[in-house]
Design goal:
six-stranded antiparallel β-barrel; five-stranded antiparallel beta sheet; 30 strands
Length: 703
Amino acid sequence: MAKLVIVESPAKAKTIRKYLGDGYEVTASMGHIYDLPASQLGIDVEHDYAPHYISIKGKEKIIKELKADAKHCDGVFLATDPDREGEAISWHLAHMLKLDLNQPNRVTFDEITRKGVKKGMEHPRTIDIDLFNAQQTRRILDRLVGYKLSPFLWRTVRRGLSAGRVQSVAVRLIDDREKEIEEFKPVEYWNLDAQLGAQGSTRKFTARLEATADGKKLAVNNQQEADSILKELEGAEYAVSELKKGQRKKTPAPPFITSTLQQEASRRLGFTALRTMRAAQTLYEGVDIAGHGTVGLITYMRTDSLRVSEEAVTAAKEFIAGHYGEKYVCNVKRTWKSRSATAAQDAHEAIRPSMAELTPDEVEQNISGDTAKLYRLIWSRFIASQMTDCQQDTVSATIKAGNYLFKATGYVVTFDGFTALYEEAEDEKEKKETGLPPLELGQVLKLKELKGEQKFTQPPSRYTEATLIRALEENGIGRPSTYAPIISTIIDRGYVERDAKKLKPTVLGRAVNSLMLEQFPKIVDVTFSAGMEKQLDKVESGELDWHKAVDDFYKDFSATLEQAQVNMEGKKIKIPEEETDEICEKCGRHMVIKVGRYGKFLACPGFPECTNTKPLIKATPGFCPKCGKRMLIRKSSKGRVYYGCEDYKDCKYMTWDEPVAETCPKCGKTLFKKSGRLYCAGEGCDYEKVITKGRSNEQQPEQ
């Protein structure tokens, strides 16, 4: 009789079945089969917080099939994902199939390759009860908070709202940032820049005013001060008074962990965290590659660890030597310190390609879209991490002019090293440095232009998904595997909205956060939330009993909830309505924005006397290339943004590509943005402009 191997997904089952061959049956549980009931608390708080698990609705057929398969097989191996959730699924499967928890029937695969599957099957173990308890504790805590707090929000704000240990902290971070922006008072300052050149050279460079001649740091605060200095510098001689030359090296970024993968995919590819994890799951579980069959292309994608196996390092260095040359191979062992507050998933390696020799170019002959883009990102980052440093010659010049000192810095790359393959997206700031011409001490320079530029200090930026994930990670809030669903939840609940890829709190989100701060300060406290994560880590390591972790939290939370209910008895939080410039054509009032089950819409504030409503439509800066009317932002039935002509009934023009304010220099029509280029959609016009790293190159395609 064959042995039964149970995984979560059919894709993973298909890949593993190929490697195990005869003697094994591989099937999928389709994720969790048991969970707490949806319609009741499901936790006996009077009896040690015992959870009441039931089969998930719709899983009856799968459960029946799994029981039948197990009955007709000679043993069962539970091969769900190697993390807390995977351990919980295996624990529930073991109880459902009445397996002996003392028997080694649990196997894990860090990579879904022939080698990875073979290694996992050769080392079966018992179910890790501590790991399961860590998941169970998180599930119970989240249920207690959500189930107890949600009715409170329904009574005091409105129905359909929710709160959670981590989601509420995320909303607070976003709201706090919005308050900083609103309270920010810009301060004026001026930059004084001299554009200089060496005698007999056409090369120009810019030096900025830094200090007085005696070395005292100088700040120019207004136009009067700027004009005074500019007047003093009239006719001044500019000469190099100090010259510092040196070398520096730039080291590659470490391989990805879950959070950094989500951040870089957001910055570089514009992916949401959920989109990133969906593509990563596909790459891990297996795709069909010509010459290799179905293979898992990356290691497990939920990890906090920066550890890399010696075998993987060796494979990467062999690839680098063969394709770039020995001088690009890093000859020292690279190690990185974990960036997260804890390393809860340190059992796994960093995220890397399972086969270093399988290049993105080869993979892209078989797959495309998100999975191909993400594989290229993961592969490039990992291979670059094992390459030599980038070597740079640096120069810093101090230039004296009258009673003032100007400073110019630059560098020249003497050996590109890992940058031949990959650089982090946020490294763009270094590229602002410019190369300097050869300079000598005492050299007199020619002034090309001297100008002052008014500036104002800027408020902090709103969070993007990437920066919010980094903030959650740095503060030890949540876990990498939870970031994607948390961000999706706070947007779906209407607490936060995306505004040009930035996360902005809604009126509802700010009202709920204010209430939470007032009545449940611990739930939205960053330090308290981070402390709870440490408690979960202690449960996972066996240092803390899960019952005590839950009890310590719940006793205080329960008392706070009782007091909050007393405080808010008979009170209702009124959500301010956002007034617009749109005039109700029926009664003349300014229409307001309301939120319904299908999103935002415009409504007359005169309800019930006036029941006028209309869709909320946002205009773009562009115009329809077909009829010339305004292009509007619209959403498909699945929530995807597209752009359509405001006269859609007659014109029908629509596109997924974003209209911009810039117009075509050939025909004057709106340009549209797509995949790093701007193009004209005007009939018969072939104008396009490629956008690359802060500059654009105009192109006309060949006829």
